[in-house]
Here is the input.
Amino acid sequence: MEVPKPKCLEKPLLVPSKLLMGPGPSNCPLRVYNAMKKPLLGHLHPEVLQIMDEIKEGLRYLFQTKADVVCCVSGTGHAGMEATIINLLEPNDIILVAQNGIWGERAAEMARRHGADVRVIEKPAGDVFSLEDVESALKEHNPAVLFMVQGESSTGALQPLEGVGSLCRRHGTILAADCVASLGGVPFFMDAWEIDVVYTGTQKVISAPPSLAPIAFSGRAMSKVRARKTPVRSFYFDIGWLANYWGCDGTPRKYHHTIPVSSVYALREALSLVCEEGLDSLWHRHHTCAQQLYQGLSALGLQCYIPDPVKRSPTVTTVTVPDGVDWMKVVRYFMSRYQVEISGGLGPTANKLWRIGLMGYNCTTENVDWVLRIMKEALENEKIKSNL
Here is the structure.
């Protein structure tokens, strides 16, 4: 044969155990891992459809919504972003993107590729938008859609969303929110805040493996989708088909695609753990651990990248790299010595900071203490110092 069998596949699969304290993914609880060992079933078997229905109820609780269309896109958070944009926008529709980090940049790029008229309002990395900023931009641009990121994981900023939905309804605009790095770690109320579309990822606070993007469309958003003059450009991301497959439209389910069944098991179990703890407790745990981390970093002489604590997301803390310290050497020290992951900056914050994640299963006081201990040790190591 011209192509021989690869030697690498003759070896057993070896995967080390690591503590993932970066901006995602987070580690999974044992119950979630064990759920993935359940027998594989067909993607339209009644048992799988029942599990999907249970996931929808868990997501309604997590999103705090009574919307009919609550489901998952098979893919990661980027799939949720693209599904949001491709369903809401037709060619030349105006979308206003509130951009203060890489995820606003990604949304704008996706919208351009789909032929939308992209308008951008910007804030420096780490800053957030006020209601006055939003209202002024809505008046100026009159967009069909406003896209905002609640938890900007590239900068650690937490965007307030309360009140934005009311402004959008006053101006006839659909509000879409990216909550990939924030949902579950901070309060979020889709219905009460009048948010039309929200999506997240399973691998952050939910603490399931990356593979699904939970998403919800309000009745108002679905009316816009149904009023389209052109078909949704992607069959795979078509929310009409997805809503049917997930049993959201009251009609018999039709085959759309083969859902990742084992990941569905994992998400169901992860949502069960969320419901057992309760949202109030989950939000409080993330707040408390973040405060512990801030205090510990300050004791080490380190500064949070975002000076105003109100603007910080508890799920991803950004830390300014001190002068004379090589940020990459610190990241490598964490991993090589202790198999612990923290990350550097991303997009506008590359080479400027570290990102420490406190999400879901990994958000514990013990893990905060462990990260602070390693950070102290790393900063005291002479080999970490950069050559100035």
